[in-house]
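pinning this so it doesn't scroll away 📌
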Amino acid sequence: MSSFKPARPSRPSGARAGFVMAVASMSTVQLGSALTVPLFDRLSALGTAGLRLGWAGLLLLVLVRPRRRDFARGDLPACVALGVASAGMMLFFMLALPHLPLGTASALEFLGPLAVSLYGPGHGRRAWTAAAALGVVLLTEPWHGGLDPLGTGFALGAAACWAAYILLTQRVGDRVTGLKGLAVSMPVAGVIAVLVSAPTLATHVTWPALWTMLALAVLSPVLPFALEFLALRRLTTSAFGTMMSLEPAIALLIGFLVLGQRPGLAPAAGVACVVVAGIGVTRTGDRRAEPAPAATPAASSSSRQPCVQEVS
């Protein structure tokens, strides 16, 4: 006698849910960056990055409390590598902001995810990648020749770290349950950032600034990094990388609203291009779980499988 299972309520596709998480992540990142800029005069760009990552690492370590038994062989080195990439991404980007407008710095940093989307797995996204690349060119307006070389170098360093961050985040997220991987990588990033910024913090930090950076650390990077962990369980790295094309547009908007940085016609056209690319990629970016292999007598019931199923 066959059993009857009632139909489950329909849920948003993995790509759509991942899209919402990614947009929320990008919005909080850029808002946190914009709110941090006024503190540069008191703490410097390096000091603000160090405090944000230091607080973020401490918060996640206390809230999630990862244990050694939560990780299989090879997981912890991947988490440490992710922490190094996270620190580089944040430090380089914050160092670029005193030299470049928020939208321009984000557009250059986006070259990292763009490279992942172009060369990563997946098909049918080259048109969206081309649209995103055109948007970045329009946002940066290289024909004017006015980009600050130092700021550009810092933004490109952040781009390289962001590419590594995407690949490592998906690997750690697939192998480690919940946010335990993030609770290891973020303290690593925090230690690196605090050590690098220690000379600046020793002479500039004050108690009010310390508590202000605690609040900003929750807004960014704790919340966005957690959202990205969950998004990358629903999306391929190529889809996620192209979807990050929305970040320069979000940065341009927040830079205008919070910092009064007004874009010209070309950057506005660039916004349209990256928005089209970000929306289009969600139609082809869902990660599909491969069929599980047939059980064998030698298989252990405790074997770990990649975690590509949707997470509530």
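📌 and the second one:
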Amino acid sequence: MSQFFGVAFQPYVRHWTGTPPNATTPQWNSYSQQDIVNMLEVIASEFTKISTYSMGYAGYYSPTTPWNQVDSNCRVAGAAAELNKLRGRVAIEVAQGIYQQSDVALQQAEIEAAFSAARAANAVFPNTVTSLVFTNEYVVDAQTTNAVNAMIVANKQNSHNLNLKVGVRSNTFGNITNPSSPFYNELKTLIQNCDFIQCNLYPGSNTPTPQDGVNGVSQAFNTIKSAVAGINSQCEVMIGETGWPSQGVSFNNTNNNVNNLLAYFEAIDKWASQEGVITYLFEAIDEPWKSNQNAQDPPWQGQNGAEGHYGLWYLNDSGGYTKKHI
């Protein structure tokens, strides 16, 4: 894989147990740092970078809960640093995610935790954490865009003091190509304050082939990149998520099988390398919890859904990780 290719990552990869409608998944805090090191060792065989989603806070935690005692996403940066120390080089670099929290105190705890995790990881092995990604698919209107911009502005200098870049991941950056968008001006201000943006771009509905999917993503990306260049030429435009599932019903109703997943990965890797675009595949390892065994709707998230099948690897019955193959 190319130097521009990374993967979106969370460690929640174990399978359902029990029988629907009472099937369950493992606790969110049940993955140890060593579990995650094991996952990252597999990922590092093909990729050099990951982008994460959160620091592990949720409504069932008090904001005063220590940052390293929440859900297992809190352990990812430390696991990457441990792996890098073992390898004696940066085998995996981390774009550390900061999830949007409805509670103000939890949001601040999430942000402070990201700084704590980055400092701790980079003390173990320098340059493990390279950036902070403020929220995921939260930028949907003027209000949420302004909220994320406020986070960026409040934390940008502290981030730069730690040699960390700041940015946002969203599926709505296409609105920056449309001056008539109801939150165009707010998006423009946000982009002016970001070091980078990560665009979540997937093949369109009923895309017939993986190459057609890459062509469509490329067109959308280039339109966004051109618009951003006119607003902030220093803002790097990346792809924060793109992928093709190996089975199930997906939100974009593509033909989902392992052959198409691998063909899409290969084609988007080639494109990212040729264009010099940092691109994070969705995703590293299947997360079965995303295909809810106890639900039907919406179909792409239900038990026949594709949401749990975007990974390049899956957790096998022996507790190891198998790469999908034809």
